[in-house]
Amino acid sequence: MNKSTALTPLNTDITTTLRLDHIVKKFGTTVAINNVSCAINRGEIVGLVGGNGAGKSTLMRILSGVVRPDEGSLSIGTNINWDEFGPKPARELGIRVVTQELSLCTNLTVAENYFIEYPKLEGSWRVAASQRISRVLADIFPNPHIGVTTIIDDLNLAQRQMVEIARAVSDPNLAWLVLDEPTSSLPRERVNQLLDYLKRLRQQGVGIIYISHRLPEVLAVTTRVVAMRNGSTSGEVNTVDTTESDVVGLMGGKVTLAGAGVHVAKNDGESEDCLLRLDQFDQGILQNIDMTINRGEIIGISGLEGSGQSELIRLLYRLRQKRSKSLQYHGNVALVSGNRAEMGIFAYWSIAKNITIASLRQIARLGILSNQQESKVADYWYNRLKFRAAGTDSRITSLSGGNQQKALIARALATNADILLLDDPTRGVDLETKFELYQLLHEWANQGHGVVWFSTEDDEMEQCDRVYILRRGRVVDELSEGITADRVVASAFMEVKDEKKQSVHESTLHRGVGWRLLTARWNLSLFSLIIIFIVMGVLNPTSISTFGLNLLIGSAVPLVFAGISQMFVIDSGGIDLGLGAFIGLINVITATTLVHDPVLALVIIIVLIGLYALMGALIYLSRVPAIVITLGASFIWLGLALTLQPIPGGSSPAWLAGFWNVNIPVIPLPIVLSIAGLVGVYIIVQRTKLGVLLRGFGNAPNAISHAGWSGLKLQMGLYALAGTAAVIAGLFVTAANGAADANSASSYTLLSIAAVILGGSEFVGGIIIPIGVVIGALTLSLIGALLGFLSLGSDYQSAVEGILLLAVLGARALTRREEN
Amino acid sequence: MTIRPSVASRASNMPWIWSLLGSLILWIGIGIVSSRFNLQTLTINATLATFLAIIGLGQMTAITGGGGGIDLSIPYVVTLSAFLSAGLMRDSNGLFLYGMGITLAVGLLIGLFNGIIIVWVKVPPIVATLATGFIVDSAGLVYAHGFSSSLPSPILTNFVTGTVAGVPLMIVGAMMVALVLGGVFRKMIYGRSLLAVGQSNKAARYAGVPVTRVILISYAISSVLAALGGSLLGAYTGGAFLNMGNPYLLTSIGAVVIGGTLISGGRSTIIGTLGGALFLTLVVTLMEASKMAIGVQDMVEGVLVIGVLLASRILPT
Fold first, then answer.
1. Residue A641: which residues within 8 A CB-CB, separation 6 or more?
2. Contact B192 A801 (CB under 8 A)
3. How far is CA A808 from CA A567, A755, A804, A818, B313, in A?
4. CA B223/CA A242 separation, integer angstroms
5. Cβ contact (<8 Å) for B208 and A358?
6. Which residues on neighbouring strands pair with residue A78, listed in sequence order?
7. N or C: lower Cβ tally within 10 Å for chain B?
8. Nearest to residue A722, comparing CAs of A787, A653, A626?
9. What is the pLDDT of residues A728-738, one digit of tens each?
10. What is the pLDDT of residues A736-750, one digit of tens each?
């Protein structure tokens, strides 16, 4: 056994058993977990297998504390009280779950992601985190080829998976490890390394649950296999006593939905009209798909989860107006999604409006809707689909999942489209509605329509005339005649012999500084800045002198700090529309109160920063968009400033005014001070623990809070930082203007947003780049000076700013399109 | 068995009721402060509010499309249009249609430009309209500086100050705009589609709604209404002046959200936006009547906007 391993489980009692007893979990009317009991000992690897939607993932989410079951108990030595259970207590008990949705913050480095989960590091935390994660990575995956200072965004899926696994197993407290499809994106070599490692981990007394569709792996590594089906355990067997086909048999179980009295509408071959033909169709994950759909047919699309089924259905809809050789439509198309919340219902509307939205032209004349026609259509489908509701005027959100789904089906059927695409339409739908739906689909097909049906429930494939099985975006099998769920499952799990080996590119993405500079997100605006400098130097050489620079950059400094302030708010996912007014308020305070009563001024400023933090808390707790709260706040800031100083006046404190006139040997003082301030910001954002958390919070708030951090505190921290930067901006405004004017900084609100975006930061994803903001702000400020030299006049300044902003964003959009 | 909806749940179906109730209270407040109750205060304020109402209805249309939809170019369009209409009409009735037509066409182009950047270049609306706004701002400045002071057509000036049967024509005009837009939102395919897109862009896409075209048009409507509002405002104030549109950035958004339109899109109320505009106008009048310092007035306005928003979150919907 490798001695270098960092793992020494603290729970020394390795005779404990983790026991789930009689677990029941319902989502609405759907029973996801139906009375499941299972136990696992320390030092054991249990394989958990089952078809799609068997309940494996839900069971593991219960174990990780994310989902609370309706009934049943969990015990590890002692019984656990569900009220005291959650993601954090689960981790304290030594339970670690690696899910399919990775929980890494993609804007942080590998080492920073490690830090978020293990903040208690001695000495230099950055060095310590880097050492630990690279040691664990190398321990599991020899020669991992992953630079620990690489941003997750620059890693491929396999590398991300490796990091995720390494981060979970490096928990010193680790006693129970759950891996949900850990090898779905790993190349073979890495898979073998992981399996070897798990065997070692097992010998150290860790209990492991290994969930996978890949049966050879399950049989190679586990000691016991538990099969699940439809939310229940359907069998259990010792690995040494079993074979792949036995396990498939265990998962197959009994088909409960068969013989529902529904007879499959056979296409008797009389009508040969083909509605849809795919001929070597390639797009995205889908490769080389051949498929035909004829009138009167119900076509099933199945396969292991994530094989491209849903993508296929959605593409067939999205490309409906394209004409190409590889994809030929001979009819129009309608789609029904089972993801009702995200892609289905219109939540503020009645059943009637939800039904008619796809066929508005049928109920309108010259673009004007007819109420009469609308109720006619709605009533017809309402009765035909036997809705259980108070009428077509009932709001859609007041319905059960099954009835909502009926509305979506009615919507698609009302279009009378030739081809009906179903994207897992019975997800979370009650049994009765399912049967009604099956019947409806057969009637629909009998009327000469075609149905393409993707379902995660293998049983439903029995309703189909033909079933295409997908695997990694390819059609690997086509079933017809006597389709059973067992055959579908067996075919989906079949290891395809001629499957191309997925070559996963494992280049070292740890690149040099030069490369980073070249590809940095802010280089477009840096480029503009340099051009502006050169043009200015040519037009007016004195502008590049110390004095000239002082003057030029001096006027840019307030905007730089305004941009930094805006950047912090943007990191939190908001926008501060009150920033200009706030800076104006600081300008007024520093040019009036600060002159007479410095202590009072200081107190006011600290209170104002506190108010900023409070505003952040208000936005976080009320979930009212930041844009409107800060808009309201802008009136308050302006009002305060006007109350203090109704008309422009006051004066800058002598020491502050002096800033502009002091030249330390060569470099002017304002530049020195602002560089010092910016270095401070850079260090906070890029180098400190707080900065890591703040950026991570902007990227994946849930990952941060599951790791035990308070989102509220982080949000308040961001707003406090934003307030502080705005105070500095206000000080510089006063130093530059030498007077108090409540409206002096109003233009900074919009300019600061422009500076942040020019600098390469993003509205979403926690991508904030202090140096980019500086460059963006400098660029925007110097445009004014440049136009002056070109004697174009200041009238054109905003236009140039606007065009520059659009040009940079346009260029960025183009490069992004090329990357995809 | 019929269930009688409670007062609260009825009110939640009519989010616009609050802005109208608020306006009523303010009107009474003004009456108390100035110890003079009359309908005239209401009509005067309503006339003042019509400009904000027209501009706010445009903002509302942009917001309705959801996805962070908002139009920050409005204040610049207002200013440019005021200058443009006056400059083109040159105090002549004969040039009225020409001046108005060109002004609205420029508004339309600006709106389409906004829409194109948002829909095709996929720039977030807040930045796209900001950038467009910068360009329009410059256009306004350049035009204004080459501008020899002139007035809009007398027709227009008479319209904005005139009355019919004691009712200011501006109120009639704003009502017409509201009715037309109301028709679009309630009765037309376009309005239905826009509300769908605002509720769920993805669901609308998969229901076959032409999402990109719908969003594009929403920004066109916003800019055209801003241009209309700007021309009328220019006529009302007796000529255009620089930065005259600036207050409308904040107040147009304020009127929309106070009126009960969801800032996240998908649910809008035209009556509410009218009420929000009236409310914000009455707030200013009340504060002026009570001789409140200008700074305090702003603070009260800010507290009101935030208070209304928080209240709308806490009250059941």
1. A581, A584, A585, A587, A588, A742, B295
2. no
3. 18, 11, 6, 15, 38
4. 71
5. yes
6. A76
7. N
8. A626
9. 999 888 888 87
10. 887 888 888 888 988
Q: What is the pLDDT of residues B214-232, one digit of tens each?
A: 999 999 999 999 999 999 9
Question: Cα separation of A802 and B127, whole Å?
Answer: 10
CB contact under 8 A, B208 and A334: yes
pLDDT of A520 reads 66
User: What's the rounded Cα separation, in Å, for the pair A67 and A59?
Assistant: 9
Angle at B19 between CA B13 and CA B20, to 5 degrees: 95
Residue numbers of A between 317 and 376 with CB closer than 8 Å to B: 317-318, 334-335, 337, 342-349, 353, 357-358, 360-361, 364, 367-369
Evaluated on CA atoms A355, A358, A362, A367, the torsion sign reads positive
Direct distance between the N- and C-terminal alpha carbons of chain A, in angstroms, rounded to an integer: 44
DSSP string, B101-167: HHHHHHHHHHHHHHHHHHHTS---HHHHHHHHHHHHHHHHHHHHHT-------HHHHHHHH-EETTE
| Residue B22 phi, psi (nearest 5) | -60, -45
- In this prediction the ipTM stands at 0.90
**Residues A347, A349, A350, A354: is their CA dihedral positive or negative?**
negative
How many helices (H) does chain B have, and how many strands (E)? Answer: 14, 2
* Phi/psi of residue A740, nearest 5 degrees: -100, 130
Distances from the Cα of B143 to the Cα of A819, B80, B102, B139, B239, angstroms: 42, 8, 14, 6, 14
Task: Kindly tell me if the per-residue pLDDT of B5 is higher than 60.
Answer: no
Read off the pLDDT of each residue in A204-232 and give the average, rounded to a whole number: 89
Candidates B10, B113, B127, B291: best to mutate against A (most CBs of A within 10 A) is B127
Contacts of A640 in chain B (CB under 8 A): 295, 299
Give residue-wise pLDDT tens across range A637-690: 999 999 888 877 777 777 776 666 655 556 667 677 778 888 989 898 888 889
How big is the A-B interface in CB pairs under 8 Å? 207
Residue A818 reports pLDDT greater than 80: no
pLDDT at A485 > cutoff 90: no
Interface of A with B in 390-419 (CB under 8 A): 411, 415
Give the pLDDT mean for A392-400: 86
Cβ neighbours around A428 below 10 Å, total: 20
DSSP A217: H
Q: φ, ψ for residue B40 (rounded to 5)?
A: -65, -40
CA B15 to chain centre: 17
**What is the rounded radius of gyration, in angstroms, for the C-alpha atoms of chain B?**
20
> Residues A752, A559: contact at Cβ < 8 Å?
yes
Q: Is the pLDDT of residue A722 over 80?
A: yes
| Structure tokens belonging to residue A807 | 């040009």
Are A112 and A692 in contact by the 8 Å Cβ rule? The answer is yes
- Structural domains of chain B, ranges and CATH numbers in brackets: 40-304 (1.10.3470)
The secondary structure of B150-204, three-state, reads CCCCHHHHHHHHCEECCEEHHHHHHHHHHHHHHHHHHHEHHHHHHHHHHHCHHHH
Phi/psi at A467 (nearest 5 deg)?
A: -130, 130
Q: Do residues A533 and A782 lie in contact, with contact meaning Cβ atoms separated by under 8 Å?
A: yes
Name the residue among A286, A47, A65 with its Cα closest to residue A183. A47
Q: pLDDT band at A336, cuts 50/70/90?
A: very high
Tokens read off for A263: 């007879």
Name the most confidently modeled range: A56-60, A427-431, B46-50: B46-50
Q: How far apart are CA A16 and CA A36, in angstroms?
A: 20
pLDDT band at A543 (very low <50, low <70, confident <90, very high): low
The answer to whether the beta carbons of residues A606 and A552 sit under 8 Å apart is no
Residue B233, CA atoms < 13 Å, CB-side half-sphere = 32
